[in-house]
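In this section we walk through a basic example: taking a raw amino acid sequence and producing a predicted 3D structure, encoded as discrete structure tokens. The instruction is simple. Fold the sequence below.
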Amino acid sequence: MSDEPPAPLPRHFKGKRPRFFDDPAADVLLKILLELAQEHWVTRARLQRLEAALARHGGPDAAAIEAAEPDPAAAAAERDRYIERLFAVLERDG
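The resulting token sequence is shown next.
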């Protein structure tokens, strides 16, 4: 085995984007759905790690977590970033 790091993958690919449906709008919806699924899985994985860490270190219980209220401005900013990531496909493929 080599000690050299692997070569970086290209950020842009040559050729046309793959099409799965006759209607381009259906392809856009599929891309949005896949982006949403990815975001959801990352959130679930982080939540599992957080819950495990809290349990190991005697953190707040489920009731305390459910009762906690995030900062409204921070929550709104995070929501806006999430929506922007989710619908970025419309700008890329528009």
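Looking at the output, two observations stand out. DSSP finds four helices and no strands in the chain. The chain has one domain: 24-93. In the next section we compare this with other chains.
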